[in-house]
Amino acid sequence: RVLALPWPDLVGLIAVGINVVLFPIALVLLVRLARRHIGEPRAIRAAALFALFPFSYVFSMAYSETLTLTLIVASFLFIERGHAVRAGAFFGLASLLRAQTAFYFLPLLFASRLAKPGPWRLLALGLGPLSTISYLGWVAWFTSSPNGYFATYAAWGRNSGGAAAGYGSFGAELAGPLAWYFATLMACLVFAVFLFVFVRVDRIPPAYVAIPAVFLAMLFVTGSLEAIGRIVLLSFPYSWILASRQHPVWRYGWPAVSVALLAVFSTLTFSGWWSP
């Protein structure tokens, strides 16, 4: 909005432009973080798979995911290098963008043990939850309602269980006109849970196993089927697991399927049929 002050009618276009610039930066940061744990060749492959993920078109929309991802990955890089204050600052900014980002607190705390950045780590990383709490408080004040933030879900057409407007339940979603889309979302959820069988084989540090675990738990609690793609996107260690698979089905089959789904979902969204 600041950049759009001279051209207020272009605020959406400017937001998209910012995301287009930020996404390659996020990919570079992802490679730098992943190569510390799975080696550079697989880190590059992981970044490529991440960019081709069926829901990665979200990074081209006027959504906050791109900036959130950039800030979060930077937080992990800083905390692993022992810079707790810098990590906390980036984490705090990310938590202002999306309230759910505060759940990265535990994974970041686990990651801090890889570098032992000193006694300030708890205080510094606490900036994330503190930012989220302050934002929720501001929304409550602005709306004059202590439930102001959560009431916005009704405006987005979601009921208390997270189902899409006009459906009311997951069963109704799977029987509606977009049944194939919701079935694909459910398949992505099952696929995401299945990938956990490889975490020990790949020797992925617990800090990064905790990221998809925490966000999948949050997904099950909220019951928001529509948010599966965006939640898995921000659970970036999934791409590390995929990049470590050597069987031809994984190495060549999944990228082909992923690109096909990306084409379908992005067409569906940008033509106005659906918004994630």
In short:
This protein has 276 residues and is mostly helical. It is 67% helix and 0% strand.
Shape designation: globular
How far is it from the N-terminal to the C-terminal residue, by CA? 22 Å
Low-confidence stretches: 159-169
Total of helices: 14
Q: Give the SSE order as H and E letters.
A: HHHHHHHHHHHHHH
Q: What this model shows, in words?
A:
The structure is a single chain. By secondary structure, the chain is mainly α. The chain has helices spanning about 10-40, 40-50, 65-80, 85-95, 105-110, 120-125, 125-145, 150-155, 170-175, 180-195, 205-220, 230-235, 235-245, 250-270. Helix 1 (about 10-40) packs antiparallel against helix 2, helix 2 (about 40-50) packs across helix 13 (about 235-245) and helix 11 packs antiparallel against helix 12. The protein starts with 10 loop residues before the first helix and ends in a 6-residue tail after the last helix.
Question: Topology of this structure?
Answer:
Layout: H1 11-38, H2 40-51, H3 65-80, H4 84-97, H5 105-112, H6 121-125, H7 127-143, H8 148-155, H9 170-175, H10 179-194, H11 206-222, H12 228-234, H13 237-243, H14 248-270
Kindly list the characteristics that best describe this protein.
mainly alpha; 67% helix
